[in-house]
Known about the structure:
With 326 residues, the chain is an alpha/beta fold.
Amino acid sequence: MTALDPRGPAHGGRTRIFLWHVHGSYTTALVQGGHEYFVPVLPDRGPDGRGRARTWTWPPNVVEVTPDEARALDVDVVLLQRPHEAELAAAWLGRVPGRDVRAIYLEHNAPQGRVAEMRHPFADRPDLTLVHVTHFNALFWDGGTTPVRVIEHGIVDPGYRYTGELPRAAVAINDAVRRGRVTGTDLLDRFARALPLDVFGIGAGTLGGVEDPPQHVLHAEMPRRRVYLHPMRWTSLGLGLIEAMQLGMPVVALATTEAVEAVPPGCGVISTDVERLCDALRRYANDAARARADGERARAYALERYGLERFLRAWDALFAAALACA
């Protein structure tokens, strides 16, 4: 880990970014940008102080900071990801995001509730920029007069690893039991009758799956399965779906939220008809050649649309715009 260096803004062309470790997969892609990233750490490494990732590989330009160390930093941008982080950042840095230091709010999630009431907590905030990870989310969230940008996901290419040797479907869901219908957990029994499932993710052990595996284990195990199943009803576009495609897996997915953009024809099967999706699982189980061909097309598409370089260029442009508005 690099030593703490409380020098001035954007020295050496590197923006100094303060952000909480909220989503490990997303942050893993973001910190490849070559800037300086400061992540809060607390002794219990709880949600407001996780520090550096333990199950993902992060470069040394990601530096853990305690509350006392944060006070000594001269950061350029605060990247907020949860509503309460605005107050946390003010307490840790001694500066109010949007007033004393440039601020960006990164919204990872699709809105919940009635469509007419999907107003974002940071709506009507001209002092910051609201970034959505999908066009679907930007369409459904009401941001009022807050400037809005969409930066679609990008991930570190895990490489083509598909073997499809196991006639089973891989599913990646975090907190599957708690989130229930939102993540399509209630549909898993129906899908499992068409093709056996292996469920990965935080809390997956309660479903007889593999609970919170390190990323390298996930990338080794998922592509041994014939197909990737994405049963999400109402979530943002999961990075597990993009990772599966870049691994070379064909996809069977509910045609909801952003999945209709992420899985074009020839890369898998998407539908709101569960029985049609069950038929697709059975067809992939019985036709390994088709599964491989669709998976190869899925990888090519995901590399182009959700490639890391495009993602980082978009963030670089936004950071530069934020600094230019100082």
